[in-house]
Structures are given as C-alpha cells and as structure tokens.
Amino acid sequence: MALKDYHIGRERGPAWPLDDSGEAVEPVFLEHVSGRLETDMEINLLRAYDIPVLYRLPNNGELAEVVMGFAPTGTDLYVPATMVDDARNILSTDLSAQAEEGYEELSEGEDNNEEVQR
Q: Which residues form the domain of 16?
C-alpha cells in the first residue's frame, strides 16, 4: 500500500524516512489499539522519540468515526519498517512503574526540603 492509503493524524510528526533509492520506507503494522485516548497517547509517545506513525481505522472505521464521533473498531498503528523494533521497545516499557519511581523520589526530596526549612 502507498502512504496515501494511511492517515497521518491531526498533528504532523517526524518526517517519514526514505530508503536508499529515495522511496518511502514501507509501513509495517505495529499494533491494534482499541481506544481513542490510548491511540493518541501511543502516537504522541512514539513521535516524542522521533518515530513517525501512520494509522488506519479498520472495518469501515472511517465511516463510523464520521457518524458516531469515534471508531468502535479501534485503530491499527503503522511505523517505518526500519524503526519497528525501536517502536516495540518503547511501547513495551512499563511507563507507569517508571512514573511511580519518579514520584517516590520527588516525594522523598520534598520531605527533605521541609526538614531543612524548619
């Protein structure tokens, strides 16, 4: 499929990479995401790491999105074939655990600041 058969999204991210012959690298299926919020979060996370993302709404999802305001069939995410391993590694990282660790460190630092001010 050509890149024109995919959606880029509301905000343009990093440029799609080109191969040695100057043609766009083939998009590869990354994963199926069920909710709109999760879709937006994953697209923005990948774009933060300079990985361009295209998406498709399977099973007449485009029509459902127009009629209902959302695609109940979910979203298929695609990334360049040259970046699929990096994208999978980024999405497989447990960000919630990292966020909790960062929060605990921040909380501990705040306690120390209160003791110093007393």
A: 3-93
Residue 2, SS3? Answer: coil
- Express each pLDDT in 14-44 by its tens digit: 888 889 999 989 999 999 988 888 888 999 9
- The pTM (predicted TM-score) of the whole model is 0.67
d(CA 55, CA 68): 19
Is 26 a member of any domain? yes
Supply 85's token pair: 């391993």
Domain membership flag for residue 84: yes
Cβ count within 10 A of residue 54: 21
- Packing angle of the helix pair 84-92, 36-48 (nearest 10 deg): 120
